Amino acid sequence: MNNNLSVFIFVSAFCVVFTATAQSSINENSQELEVGVGGNIILDEASQIYVKEGADLHLHPLWESRYISEGRDNLSGNGIVSVASEFNYNNIAFIPWAASGINSDYSELNLNIIYATQLFDIFEVFAGYNYILSHEASSNAYDNEISLDFSYFYDDKFQLISSVYYSFDAKGAFLELAVKKDYHLNDTLVLDIQTGLGFNADYVSDGHNGFNNVQFKAGLSYQVLDQLELYTYTSYSLAVNKDESRYAGDETLRNVFWGGVGFSYQYRKN
């Protein structure tokens, strides 16, 4: 097994053991899934209880000023628009995610299948498979990824997140660890603050392995109707150990601000 991947698995396991020793139990309201940049799921505190019976549909159109993933500016300063259609039934979620570059010849389609469950009654665990098709400059690329996400609520609103995803094409993994806190300003307005760390293990095959970036994010959501929520965010990514003279993939690893705006619509049928 790749040494860096072994380190990531160890760090993930450590995160699980650490949070398992906390004194508080998980928030009774499980959370909804969303798909963010790169087609990876985002774990947010749900405004509605996660579907345990029946089915629901979410739509998430989003405009972002840059396409940032793994701390890298993938479209050299150009933005991206995307739409996620999320279908939930019991513990299974099917999430197609389609995106198109702004002022760039780039498009991407992700087909996510996520299974959600609880572990030791304190963690929410999400195991996923993602098929990826991307198109850039008249060429296509394909990939298959698997992912494992852990979420733990401390004192209802303080959230610890661990996410690792593995690419069969790159034969490498990327690990993200994050801490998030929500502030309910009133019945309809929620501010969320998040900071996270990113670690590369051959996922960005031509980038350096190990600690890659630190990200800071502030988001604001407004519940317009019971089923409609507006959302905007701003984020900053700080490159760590960048060495583009040795690693071509580090050229797009940058210190950069970006933001986004979108909305979420939910239809539920019991």
Molecular structure report:
With 270 residues, the chain is mostly beta strands. Helices cover 7% and strands 61% of the residues. The chain is globular and about 50 Å long. It starts with a helix and ends with a strand. The N terminus is likely disordered.
Estimate the mean pLDDT confidence. 82
CA-atom Rg in angstroms: 18 Å
Give the helices and strands as they follow along the chain. HEEEEEEEEEEEEEEEE
What is the terminal-to-terminal distance?
45 Å
**Structural shape:** globular
Note the beta-strand portion.
over 45%
Q: Unreliable stretches, pLDDT < 50, 5 or more residues?
A: 1-31, 45-52
Share of residues in helices: under 10%
Tell me the number of helical segments per DSSP (H or I, 4 or more residues long): 1
Strand order of the largest sheet: 3-6-7-8-9-10-11-12-13-14-15-16
Please state the structural category. Answer: mainly beta
**Main sheet attributes: strand count, strand direction, barrel closure:** 12 strands, antiparallel, barrel
How many E-type strands?
Answer: 16
Labels describing this entry:
270 residues; disordered N terminus; single chain; mainly beta; two-stranded antiparallel ribbon
